[in-house]
């Protein structure tokens, strides 16, 4: 492991906004902050918004700057990347920003039912191969996890360059009859992007430079709490698109 990564890992532990539990603290058990984020971490009663797969935390910080009336938490497993967002939030003394280093599969150990008001998913790995479909962050198993912590009526935002993931998510929404407030296949080309959607991460700038349209979906989970797995026919018909998408992300 490089010295720069080791330095960042060490510095992460000094940031008050950074939560990094040991595996044993959250595997099949609840983290002490579960149900107490507002009281013990943010010390206010404002809404909580998660960014899943936050990477460098660019969107988490940008959203928090634009909306000081809400609390924002970036979640990712890549500690060296998250260091950038945590350091920025610390330097700017942003009291409405937090970061949690963990696998997204474990978020149920961190948040109580109804504790989260919104979820953002920005440029996740689209997991293009059919055998990895269950790892897509809008797959049924993840939606079931979100349903256990998202407040009734809470929104899920997906912003991605992947047309495959965009279509897959639309299929999931239709399959389960979920309420969908927005679905746009090209937010800049259609003029749909507002101030918040116009925030550009490093990944997004790279994709835009390649001429890839950026898509956006905003949907809810309705009253559903169970999301059985299902097969999407598009996983078999989109192979050419998948190959092109793989090339654009290398």
Structure, described:
35% of the residues are buried. Strand 3, helix 5 (79-91) and strand 4 (97-101) form a beta-alpha-beta unit. With 250 residues, this protein is an alpha/beta fold. The longest helix is centred in the C-terminal third of the chain and has 14 residues, at 163-176. It has one domain (3-248): 3-Layer(aba) Sandwich (Rossmann fold). The chain has an eight-stranded mixed β-sheet with strand order 1-4-3-2-5-6-8-7, with helices on both faces. The chain is built from ten helices and eight strands. The protein has helices at 3-12, 23-26, 37-42, 58-66, 79-91, 140-147, 163-176, 202-209, 234-237, 239-248, and strands spanning 18-19, 48-52, 71-76, 97-101, 116-122, 150-160, 180-184, 215-219.
* Biggest pleated sheet: 8 strands, mixed
What would you call the structural class? alpha/beta
Order of adjacent strands in the largest pleated sheet: 1-4-3-2-5-6-8-7
> Cα-atom Rg, whole angstroms?
18 Å
The overall pLDDT, averaged over residues, is 92
Residues in helix, %: 25-40%
Number of separate strands: 8
């Amino acid at each position: 492991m490089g010295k720069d990564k080791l330095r960042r890992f060490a510095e992460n532990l000094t940031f008050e906004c950074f939560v990094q539990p040991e595996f044993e603290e959250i595997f099949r058990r609840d983290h002490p902050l579960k149900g107490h984020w507002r009281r013990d971490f943010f010390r206010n009663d404002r809404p909580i918004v998660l960014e899943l797969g936050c990477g460098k935390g660019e969107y988490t910080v940008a959203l928090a700057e634009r909306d000081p009336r809400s609390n924002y938490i970036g979640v990712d497993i890549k500690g060296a990347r998250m260091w950038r967002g945590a350091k920025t939030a610390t330097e700017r003394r942003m009291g409405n920003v937090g970061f949690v280093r963990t696998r997204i599969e474990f978020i149920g150990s961190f948040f109580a039912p109804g504790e989260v008001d919104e979820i953002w998913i920005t440029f996740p790995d689209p997991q293009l191969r059919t055998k990895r479909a269950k790892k897509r962050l809008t797959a049924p198993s993840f939606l079931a996890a979100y349903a256990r912590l998202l407040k009734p009526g809470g929104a899920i935002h997906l912003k991605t360059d992947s047309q495959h993931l965009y279509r897959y998510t639309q299929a999931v929404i239709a399959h389960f009859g979920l309420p969908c407030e927005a679905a746009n296949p090209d937010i800049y080309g259609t003029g749909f992007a507002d101030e918040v959607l116009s925030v550009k991460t490093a990944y997004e700038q790279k994709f835009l430079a390649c001429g890839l349209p950026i898509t956006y979906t905003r949907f809810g989970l309705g009253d559903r709490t169970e999301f059985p797995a299902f097969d999407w026919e598009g996983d078999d018909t989109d192979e050419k698109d998948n190959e092109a998408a793989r090339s654009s992300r290398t």
